Amino acid sequence: MSEEGLTHFFKRWNWIMHQSLSRKIMNLKTKCYFLVGYQLGSLVLLILSGIIWEAYSNDYVMFIAMMVFIVSSCIAIYKLYVNSTCPQCEKSFFYKGDNPANLGFSIYTHKCTNCGYKLNKGE
């Protein structure tokens, strides 16, 4: 392979790796926004179902609201586990030491809980 062909290959490889890293960073940012939105939405859902339950004394409303809350909690936890490795340290971005009981503030700060890598706005 000529030197020019090798240079083109490495430029192309760097471009592909940068695209992969950008996609991973956008995926992590999307998960952060999803979890914050879920937290706000679940609060609104529980408050509204409590108001309806008090107003109409309908036991089914509270049961349905709690089931929706439990199912959406399971979906949120699953989304945090799947493909959420840090681009720098290759450990879990959200959990410190891969322990699900130790969820840091990385969903708000956009920093890795293990190494402190920050997701930049421009990436």
Task: Provide a quick synopsis of the model.
The protein is mainly α and 123 residues long.
Explain this structure.
It is elongated and about 75 Å long. The protein is mainly α. The mean pLDDT is 71. The chain has a domain at 26-109. It contains three helices and no strands.
Which characteristics define this entry?
123 residues, 66% helix, single chain, 3 helices, mainly alpha
SSE inventory with pairings:
Layout: H1 3-56, H2 59-81, H3 106-109
Helix pairs in contact: 1-2
Question: What's the oligomerization state?
Answer: single chain
Structural class: mainly alpha
Number of beta strands: 0
The shape, in one word, is: elongated
Strand content: under 5%
Task: State the helicity in percent bands.
Answer: 55-70%
Query: How many distinct helices?
Result: 3
First-last Cα distance: 33 Å
Task: Give the low-pLDDT segments.
Answer: none
Radius of gyration: 21 Å
| Main beta sheet | none
Order of helices and strands: HHH
Average pLDDT taken over every residue: 71
